[in-house]
Design a protein that fits this description.
The complex is a heterodimer of chains A (194) and B (208). Chain A is mainly alpha-helical. Chain A has helices at residues 7-14, 21-29, 31-49, 59-75, 88-107, 137-146, 151-157, 163-172, 175-192. In chain A, helix 5 packs parallel to helix 9. Chain B is mainly alpha-helical and 208 residues long. Chain B folds into two domains: 1-110, RNA polymerase sigma factor, region 2, helix turn helix motif (Rna Polymerase Sigma Factor, Chain: A), CATH 1.10.1740; 130-200, Winged helix-like DNA-binding domain superfamily/Winged helix DNA-binding domain (Arc Repressor Mutant, subunit A, Orthogonal Bundle), CATH 1.10.10.10. Chain B has helices at residues 2-8, 26-34, 38-60, 63-80, 90-108, 129-147, 151-162, 167-174, 178-196. In chain B, helix 3 (38-60) crosses helix 7 (151-162) and helix 4 (63-80) packs across helix 5 (90-108). Chain B starts with a helix and ends in a 12-residue tail after the last helix. The chains are: A mainly alpha (194), B mainly alpha (208). At the A-B interface, helix 1, helix 3, helix 4 and helix 8 of A face helix 3, helix 4, helix 5, helix 6 and helix 7 of B.
Chain lengths: 194, 208
């Protein structure tokens, strides 16, 4: 093997993983690659030496109790912040969401952009904020329309739209509510001829 | 590492007892929780809170934000449970939710690292005060360097080094190709080397 090792091979060797015999043979004769592998392995060792500080033993039951309490509030519709969105609350949230999405679309309609990282991961597939496939056409429509939008433009366009409100809407809308949102979005997209 | 810790502890410190039981598989607990069994979801929380907190801590750098992000993660998981189609394992899905929750939180406020020593942390066994302080100081330098990495490199590095996920598992969590994961890991290590050992240079530099 005459050429220097690829990044894949360098990382695999630094991690003690399996590589082709030719890569190992090259390593024996190439000081530069051997040095690179040693330095990557050294960094890896430094990282692994840094163990996460162990919280006090009381921390874990406290954390699970706190999570349980938050979910209790979430699950009980009578408690403020619950998942059920009766009547006006659903419309207020849906209106906020659709207005935000539309403002965002209008604000960034011109010019080529980098894709908006809606899932926070830059994934090109249609996924919700939590990475699951989207349940129906409403969200596919939203993401498709937003696929050419830059994240910084999104923030500029809808500064008042808190991420939690969108997130709640995405997770909590019923099928009927999503269908209505889809109808509103399609009508508005047609009207603005984006 | 968090995942190894989880295995070592058997992940059974649960107090809740759903119909699925504490020894039930994640899949059984997910199905029970989806059917309305809150105790089953509580068991999932007990089982995975270390893992989730660990991801959040490594991405956010301090205990308070990590605890908040862990709570966000389980709330999102609870809300999203009915939409979880089990195309990946629950753990993979939870990693993804935790990463997103941490990124949301890190975007909402400037990052801050915990001070070198917190009174409520348990010191490493056998550490003298001096050695412990030195170790913590070096750890703080390493964590600060990790925090300065570009986001994709940082995510990949945290999941690989601190959670021992395979390249394929990381690819599933992050929705990337295995090749991209390997490249991000390589550049993360190289960038860290430059930050932690600035005088040493890069040596061999394959095309990138």
């Amino acid at each position: 093997m005459d050429r220097h090792l690829t990044p894949d091979a360098l990382v695999a060797l630094a991690e003690g993983g399996r590589v082709e015999a030719s890569a190992r043979a090259h390593l024996r004769t190439c000081a530069r690659c051997a040095s690179e592998v040693a330095s990557l392995a050294g960094v890896m060792g430094e990282l692994r030496a840094d163990e996460m500080p162990e919280p006090s033993p009381l921390f874990w039951p406290q954390l699970s109790a706190r999570i349980r309490a938050a979910i209790d509030r979430e699950a009980d519709p009578s408690v403020r912040g619950g998942t059920a969105w009766p009547g006006w609350r659903w419309w207020a949230n849906a209106a906020t969401l659709s207005a935000g999405v539309l403002a965002l679309l209008v604000a960034v309609a011109s010019g080529p952009r980098a894709p908006l990282d809606l899932a926070g991961m830059g994934d090109d597939s249609l996924v919700s904020v939590d990475g699951e496939p989207l349940p129906n056409d409403a969200w596919a429509l939203v993401l498709e329309a937003a696929s050419g939008i830059d994240a910084s433009d999104a923030g500029d366009a809808v500064p008042a739209l808190a991420p939690a409100s969108v997130e709640g809407a995405i997770v909590d809308l019923s099928q009927d509510e999503r269908a209505e949102l889809e109808r509103l979005l399609r009508a508005e997209l047609q009207r603005t001829a984006l | 590492m968090v995942r190894n810790d989880l295995m070592a502890h058997g992940a059974v410190n649960a107090t809740a007892s759903g119909e699925a039981g504490n020894g039930a598989s994640d899949e059984a607990l997910v199905r029970a929780a989806r059917a309305g069994d809150r105790a089953a979801f509580d068991t999932l929380v007990e089982r995975h809170q270390r893992l989730v907190y660990g991801v959040c801590y490594r991405l956010l750098g301090n205990r308070d934000d990590a605890a908040d992000a862990a709570q966000d993660t389980f709330l999102r998981a609870f809300r999203g449970l009915r939409g979880f189609r089990e195309r990946s394992s629950f753990t993979t899905w939870l990693y993804r939710v935790a990463v997103n929750a941490s990124l949301n939180r890190s975007g909402a406020r400037p990052s801050r690292q915990d001070p070198i020593e917190r009174a409520d942390q348990v010191p490493a066994r056998g550490d003298s005060p001096h050695a412990g302080l030195e170790r913590e100081e070096r750890a703080a330098v390493v964590r600060a360097a990790v925090a300065r990495l570009p986001r994709k490199q940082r995510l990949t590095l945290v999941l690989r080094v601190y959670h021992d996920l395979s390249h394929e598992e990381i690819a599933r969590v992050l929705g990337r190709s295995v090749g991209t994961v390997k490249a991000n890991l390589f550049f993360a290590l190289r960038n860290l080397k430059s930050m932690l050992h600035p005088g040493e240079g890069h040596g061999s530099t394959p095309d990138a």
